[in-house]
Every structure is written in structure tokens, then in C-alpha cells.
Amino acid sequence: VNNSFNYMQMCCSHIQFANQEEKQEFSKFPTKTGRRSLSRSISQSSTDSYSSAASYTDSSDDETSPREKSQVNSKGSSDFCVKNIKQAEFGRREIEIAEQDMSALISLRKRAQGEKPLAGAKVVGCTHITAQTAVLIETLVALGAQCRWTACNIYSTQNEVAAALAESGVSVFAWKGESEDDFWWCIDRCVNMEGWQANMILDDGGDLTHWVYKKYPSVFKKVRGIVEESVTGVHRLYQLSKAGKLCVPAMNVNDSVTKQKFDNLYCCRESILDGLKRTTDVMFGGKQVVVCGYGEVGKGCCSALKALGAIVCVTEIDPICALQACMDGFKVVKLNEVVRQMDMVITCTGNKNVVTRELLDRMKNGCIVCNMGHSNTEIDVASLRTPELTWERVRSQVDHVIWPDGKRVILLAEGRLLNLSCSTVPSFVLSITATTQALALIELYNAPEGRYKQDVYLLPKKMDEYVASLHLPNFDAHLTELSDEQAKYMGLNKNGPFKPNYYRYEKGFKTPHIDYD
Description:
- The chain is an alpha/beta fold.
- It has helices at residues 2-12, 20-26, 32-47, 88-100, 103-112, 131-142, 159-168, 180-191, 207-215, 231-242, 257-280, 296-307, 319-327, 335-338, 357-362, 418-422, 427-446, 461-471, 484-490; strands at residues 122-127, 146-151, 171-173, 200-203, 225-228, 250-252, 288-292, 311-315, 331-332, 344-347, 367-371, 390-395, 398-402, 408-412, 456-458.
- α4 (88-100) crosses α6 (131-142) and α5 (103-112) runs parallel beside α17.
- The relative contact order is 0.11.
- Residues 1-18, 21-60 and 508-517 have low confidence and may be disordered.
């Protein structure tokens, strides 16, 4: 480029100008220094763009903490804490767009709105706060519930959506880029409200449940049930149950068919690429990638990466999942054996210390490291915050961690959930999960005394089938009906459920497996 520019200048030096004005006009072409400034300006605008963040307000808002601001909505309420209540109009548009692809949840809202099955329910929720979860929250309100909400991830909140919820009257406490202290403060504000006490909990990750157990155990005297949607949160619930400390019924939404097979698999299959492209602009063809964990999330990630030409290998602890990976054409390896050759390392196990400092030290220059699991425990990010390493923020949610010899490792979202921290997720597949969550809340809230004990339960199969049936009209799909003779032969009710609880809905030839991710 420089040679071409110099040649152009040399040629132009022989141009004869008609007058001094023409010569001055030509001289306005950028000099070498000017070109460099122009390039820097373009580069900077690219890093500030929507491509690396799922919020209108990331780069434009001031740096004042929302906790220090005094804000009220149009109704005069100040029972919320968001980045900027003035962004509510933008957020409302986002929610309306999401509603168009969440028709099943809207259908549930319309069908049950007259009955108000959640009348009297006081739901405290801790989930990602996006346009899609806003549709869920507003559905719960339409079904009669009072809601107070906070975020389960410090990077995934869409500020304008949080503002729209606050404007509509939902007490929401969340903003993108919270500190750890802010995170727990927001949870506390949701739970600790004078004159208001929750009787239902909707959690994603178990942090809200943990906080209530730790700070406000008396709340459980009135709580009818907990609905949990993540691997991490469900694991915590089973630990409480095993220790005899779970004092209310809990519904395990994560292991419901409609969550595992659609949100975990299909959602991650699309959003892994979206998150990586928005943050790094990487080309996948020919890249060496290792995916840690071959549960539903890992399967989705591997499928997408392989389709774009990446050379994918898998790590696994479970021999059944490992065999599935082999049958799907992926080499199963140990991370420490291949880490030096990898261009990308992606974790999706739900475990801790999957990628340790020792492994990070051995990675090659330019290796991209990210996490698709719920928690930020899979990558040992804390071990990278040492004096000998330099952190360089290159764009939103993208850090270059620089070793003394100049090697750089590209860390995304500081090891937190990539797709919701750095991009967005498909509204349709979240409609499936959200509808499942809404039905789980309705079931626990309205269940007669004694139906559920102080234990962890899976969603009844009939409800899974109902959630799926609500989404079939989007594809103009028509179910075949069993005849009386066929139903008798199979030992089924014509209206379902059509599969026993132990049935695993696997793709193609895959064998049943136990998920550990």
C-alpha cells in the first residue's frame, strides 16, 4: 500500500495545476501520518461496534456505577437498578423482535392468561437478562406473578432490555459489566425487600439459591419450589438433597428433554460460531480445535466447527460420551498431549480447572481460549493475574494475555459463558427453554401438598411433549395420530406420553449416555 501511494505521489508531482486553489485542494489528500491516523480511527470504530457486544449501550454510557445513580421510571418507581432507564425504548424494540420468534411462549401466555395460574406467586429470578428472557418474565407477569429479577452473569445483560423491564414495572437489578460485589448486591436487593417475600425461585446457576440459603434461610418457609435450568445449579441442588439440606421441592429443568436436546445442543451449535466471529473474526477452515466435554453442548460446538472446516478433537472423562465422539468422527485426546498444537481451546464440561495455568503456559502464540459452560471455573483465569503477565484489552470481552517472551493467548469473556457474553442466541430455541421454565413454575406453584417432597425432580414427560407440540406450528408440522388398535399394541395413551422416562432422544445411531457436562 505504501509503495503504491508513493508511486502515485511521484506521478502526481508532475501534474500541472491551473491555479493555486487546485493545488491546495489536491494537497488535502492524507499524508503518511494522516493515513495512519485514519487507519487507527477505522480500527477503533470497528472494535466499538455492535459486532462484539449484545447491547446498544456498551460504548456510549458513562462510567458512573448504576448503584450511584438516582433513576425513576415513567410511573415514578425507583425499585430497580439498571444502567440507563432512558434506553427503555430501544429495549422494548428488542423484546418485540424476540417475541416474533417465540410464538409458543406467547401462545402459552394467551392460553393461560385468563386462568392466571400464577396469581399470588412472587417469583424471584436470577437468569441472563436478554430480550428472550424478558419475554419469559413478562409472560410470568401476564399469568399473575409478581417478579423481581437479577442477572446470573456479569457480562450477559442487555442494558436496554433491563431498562425496558424496569420501565414496565419489573424490579430488575442488573447491568452489563457488573463487578463481583455488584453481582451479589443485585441478588441481595432482589431478595431483601421490605414487605415482599418470594414464594418461588427461578435460578440459572444456583447463585440465587445459594444466597438465600446463606443470608435469608427463613425465606424457604414460604417458598413452594425452586426451578433450576443449568448443569451447575442442578449439581448444587443434588448436593443439598444428598446432605439432607434441601428444604423445598426443586425442578431440574436442565435435564428435561426440551432443554438438553434443543437449548444445549442446537443453540450452542449456532451461537459458538457467532460468539467466536464477533470477538475474533477468526476463520475456522483448517484450524486445530479441542473441545473439552462431549455432552450436548460439546456435541453442538463440535458439529458447527467441523462443518466450517475446523479440525476438531475432543476430551472426555465418560467412556460412553468418548465412544460417541469417536463414532461421530472426532479423535478423543488428553488436553495436555495436544495443547501445544491447538489454535482454539473450548471448554464445556461444567467442571473446574479444566484449563490450568500449566496448560495455558504451553499454548502457542495466538491460541484462542473460551468457555461454553455456565460457570467461570473451567479456565483458571485467576492464575493469569500475576505480575509477569500483561493484560491488554483489545475490544469488548477480548483480552490478550501476554507472556514475558511476547506470546499472546486470546482470552474471551474472561472465561465466562461465551455465547451470552459476546453475542446473542437464537430466540426460537430459547422459547423452548423458557416455555419449559414457565410450565415448571406453574406445576410447582399449583401442585397439591404432598405431590412433591424436599427433593429434586425432572419435568414430567407429558410436559416435555406439550412444550414440543407448541413449537411444531412454526414448521407447519403435522403429527400422525395413533389408531386405537396401534395405541393398544404399543401400550400407550393416544395423547401421550409416548416414551418412557428412561428413553433418551438421541440423534441418529448414537447410544444412550450419561451427561457430565
